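can u do me a favor
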């Protein structure tokens, strides 16, 4: 079996993040390759102990210092790769892609998955954004193949001959009848608006909190996610929650997250920047009514026009929430056939030049 080295993620399972969830689903569906995943030790949880027959974990020292952790961890991974040569290196994200030239100099092929243009995120300083743009240029130039999860971003980068669009996916789900996790947090089934994602500024959660404060018909908002590095953004959201309608459940996964999706009244994705949000596919799989900010990342799926609101516009979000809450609560039906992880894994496998 050929060996694929995976770098650029914090690792999986049991580690928060869209890229991490992407890696978990993608590589657990690959059966004919050996996958070596380089994980960041600082992020491992009890769930990270789960093993899979074709996946090997290399857990390396890491930090939680914003702007440094990815560079440091990827460097350590590349040093390991020097002495334990795989057949292909699969890099996730443009930041770690800065090491693509070095890996190519080793004589190893590189496949890059371009998840999102990180330099668009407000959390980065001007010098950091400049550096990320240089990383993008190196990633695109020195990778043998480039996978885009966002068709708009692929076209924006020039639709290189070596690039291909492969979306994120979703596995079949079943609704949970249990409310044990909801009861633990005082969450009322069928009454709450749900948002899922890391507590970072690009997720735009402040616009949802502000909208909830304005609307008397919104009685509860559940935000499932944890902070990335510091807790400043969460504290800001708590200060905005003057009506005390928001329940923060922290990083939520497994059966607990299944219960949140199963009993929500409405799913809201107010992001400012996204590559291809997997949480959107999850909400669709559970048949939830959905509201999304109108950005290229959320336009990757075929939702009705009324499911979008103007990004960063609280008035637009309030109007959209009111409209949906005034309508009968009925399960929605979405076509998710092209987002099957087994097919996506097979297409991705064909991009490896071995």
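np, heres the sequence
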């Amino acid at each position: 079996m050929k060996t694929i080295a995976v770098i650029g993620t914090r690792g999986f399972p049991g580690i928060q993040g869209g890229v991490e969830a992407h890696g978990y689903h993608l590589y657990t569906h690959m059966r004919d390759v050996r996958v070596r995943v380089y994980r960041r030790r600082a992020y491992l949880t009890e769930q990270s102990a789960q093993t899979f027959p074709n996946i090997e974990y290399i857990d390396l020292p890491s930090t939680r210092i914003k702007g440094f952790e990815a560079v440091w961890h990827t460097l350590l991974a590349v040093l390991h790769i020097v002495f334990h040569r795989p057949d292909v290196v699969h890099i996730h994200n443009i930041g770690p892609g800065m090491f693509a030239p070095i890996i190519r100099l080793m004589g190893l092929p590189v496949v890059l998955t371009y998840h999102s243009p990180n330099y668009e995120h407000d959390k980065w300083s001007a010098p950091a954004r400049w550096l990320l743009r240089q990383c993008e240029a190196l990633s695109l130039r020195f990778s043998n193949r480039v996978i885009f999860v966002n068709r708009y971003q692929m076209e924006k980068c020039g639709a290189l001959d070596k690039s291909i669009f492969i979306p994120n996916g979703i596995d079949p789900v079943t609704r949970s009848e249990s409310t044990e996790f909801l009861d633990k947090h005082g969450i009322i089934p069928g009454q709450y608006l749900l948002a899922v994602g890391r507590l970072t500024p690009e997720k735009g959660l402040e616009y949802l909190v502000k909208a909830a404060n304005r609307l008397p018909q919104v009685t509860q908002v559940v935000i499932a996610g944890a902070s990335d590095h510091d807790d400043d953004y969460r504290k800001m959201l708590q200060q905005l929650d003057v009506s005390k309608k928001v329940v923060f459940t922290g990083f939520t996964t497994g059966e607990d997250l299944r219960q949140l999706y199963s009993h929500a009244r409405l799913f809201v994705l107010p992001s400012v920047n996204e590559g291809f949000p997997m949480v959107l596919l999850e909400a669709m799989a559970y048949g939830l009514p959905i509201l999304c900010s109108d950005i290229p990342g959320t336009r990757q799926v075929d939702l009705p026009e009324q499911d979008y609101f103007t990004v960063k516009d609280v008035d637009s979000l309030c109007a959209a929430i009111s409209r949906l809450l005034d309508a009968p609560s009925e399960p929605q039906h979405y076509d998710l056939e092209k987002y099957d992880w087994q097919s996506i894994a097979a297409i991705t496998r064909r991009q490896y030049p071995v």
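The radius of gyration is 20 Å. hope that helps!!
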